[in-house]
User: Which sequence fits this backbone?
């Protein structure tokens, strides 16, 4: 969902680097997003012609619906308009959920990937591919080739969900269409 926004500020010409802007937006928006029941995953500001695109990525256990995105977009837009975080230049606000290509780097990412096939890079080198059986605040349990393996997050650098077109157990339902 995208929303056009513009807020005037005398400090518009004194903006810091993109990293400082991102950090300020993260600080501003984290409580707004959390108050709506979501996790703020990232804020990305990119030039888009004469405007800037502000992409806010939110997530939650159980996912994020389009209605959720619409509701949290309004809250985010209000917060941006009430602050001088974006200066006086126009911007386009886009609020979205993370895509399947989002790296799994936090325990909550691994927890939300339960049941999914992932490929993970090991801290000491190499990779492991397996299905996420469970995840908690300290480790993830992967079923790799029929063997469960518990890996602490310190043993992993990141994981990526693998796209499965014909997941095991889904064959019967696919052939029952009339």
Assistant:
């Amino acid at each position: 969902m995208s929303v056009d926004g513009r807020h005037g500020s005398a400090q518009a010409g004194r903006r810091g680097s993109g990293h400082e802007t991102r950090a300020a937006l993260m600080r501003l928006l984290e409580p707004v997003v959390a108050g709506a029941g979501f996790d703020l995953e990232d804020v990305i500001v990119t030039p888009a012609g004469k405007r800037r695109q502000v992409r806010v990525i939110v997530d939650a256990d159980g996912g994020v619906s389009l209605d959720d995105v619409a509701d949290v977009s309004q809250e985010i837009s209000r917060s941006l308009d009430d602050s001088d975080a974006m200066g006086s230049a126009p911007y386009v606000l886009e609020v979205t959920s993370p895509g399947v290509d989002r790296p799994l780097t936090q325990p909550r990412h691994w927890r939300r990937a339960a049941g999914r096939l992932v490929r993970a890079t090991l801290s000491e080198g190499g990779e492991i591919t397996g299905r996420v059986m469970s995840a908690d605040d300290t480790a993830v349990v992967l079923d790799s080739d029929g063997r469960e393996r518990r890996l602490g997050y310190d043993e992993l650098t990141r994981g990526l969900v693998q796209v499965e077109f014909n997941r095991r157990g889904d064959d019967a339902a696919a052939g029952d269409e009339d």
Remarks:
- DSSP finds four helices and nine strands in the chain.
- Residues 18-35 form the longest helix (18 residues).
- The radius of gyration is 20 Å.
- Strands lie at 2-5, 39-48, 51-59, 91-96, 117-122, 127-135, 139-144, 147-152, 156-161.
